[in-house]
Here is the input.
Amino acid sequence: MPAKLQTVDDRPALRLERRLKHAPEKVWHAITDPAELAHWFPAAVDVDLRDGGAIRFTFPGTDDVTTGQVITVDPPREFTFTWNDDTLRWLISPDGEGSLLEFTHTFGRGDPAIAKLAAGRTAAGWDVCLDTLEARLAGEKHEPPEDWHAPMASYVDDFGLGDGEVLADGTIRFRRDLVWKSPDEVRALLPGEPGWHVVHDPLEGTRVEFTEAPETDVAAQLARRHEQLDKLFAATHGVELPDWPAERVEAVRKHYAERPTQG
Here is the structure.
């Protein structure tokens, strides 16, 4: 089942679930034991497995350590912890002869609107992690995808994260997550016109913001810039997208014409 983007206590949150052909006790071991986590979790984990215990994460190939705290250890039902300012909650319940694993990642840092921009890449990443977990439980291997652009772009579309907005003064604005690309790499791909601004945060990654004054047909302007941002996002992954067909352009223009766009 694809990830869903929700709101938890005014914060953006991703929810994913998997129906697994394994008992809750086996799933619990796979999501709490550091030796098992090493096979599917995105970072190496060192955890004091108790309520209030410390948890540390180290990404492969680096010495950078980030930290969190265990919130709930309730075997074999719930494992909840923080990672920096985010909260990761794993719920396991019996499902026939197997288990239902429900996972929620709540983004806890900064402006919720900015935090939400990373939901597309984060959802794509967790999909791969959970697919790898499922394979591990079955004693199989799962190869990560070579193409990360397509699944991330799909979630950006599904969640509406590529949409532009019209601000109170009429200015149009787009804000698009560009994952962990270097600012210099992004700037080299920007169009040679004003209005583009690259923002990089060591914890949030890189995003691009674009603003410009409104034109006569604002919906068409938004559609044109939306296409441009889609192409920029693809280019940062080495993908060259073709021009949108006329029907796609018209569908997106109609989308903007029919919905409130004021931010």
About this structure: The chain has two domains: 4-137, 162-258.
